[in-house]
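Problem 12. The chain below contains 259 residues. Write out its predicted structure in token notation.
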Amino acid sequence: MTPETVRLPDGRRWQVLTAGRGPDLLWLHGVRGIPAHDPLLQRLATHRRVIAPLAPGFGDADELEHVGNVHDLALAYDDLRRHLGLERPVVVGHSFGGMIAAELAAHFPDAVSRLVLLAPFGLWDDARPVADIFAVPAPEVDSLLWHDMTARDALWPAAPAADPKAAGAQIIATAMAMTAVAKFLWPIPDKGLNRRLKRITARALLVFGAADAVVPPAYVAAFARHLRQPEIAVVDRAGHMLPYERTDEVAALIARFLG
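Solution.
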């Protein structure tokens, strides 16, 4: 993917990755950011032009100063969409990015042609609480996020023990990502999205991992009841990081949905 720093008219900067050709697809990443070689984006880019911005705070903590809540976040992404000239793109979001995608589609219903939510945060059920990934020690977070640790090791390998500089950089990057996500998900991820989902007019696809220990697959019903006849899929042998644990199956579901 080709990296670029985009400067908006108001001076804000966005780190954006692009790849492929075809109809526009806006990718909103999850809690771990975008891996160096993202297999799902590579698959999507075979038939689409994929635009993947790095969420505020993931690259520079100062970016969060002007994003106070989820409403500001939705406005910020719409500003970027308009600046990039994306007219009603397909929007695909995973995890934290799934919540942003839903907020964008709810705040600006006419701006999204189709919506794909992969294990999205954003709702809360007292009977089936979303896991508090901020309450566990940092080394244990991945054991919640991943069902297949082999897939994790292939995409986000630990820095060699003999390279303390690389290890330190990984720790800093993880801390920045979790700080950015916590601003919008803690203490619980429901910031009123359940009242806004009904504004979404785009056709939607909901995909959850059957073994998701963070956002239980039961949440598919919580999202579905607010959307207009969404398509639904629950992927076996997949946890919260299902785009990277079951890449081929997830890519096929998205391709079929988009036609």
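Discussion. The longest strand covers residues 13-19. Students who got a different answer should revisit the alignment rule from Section 12.3.
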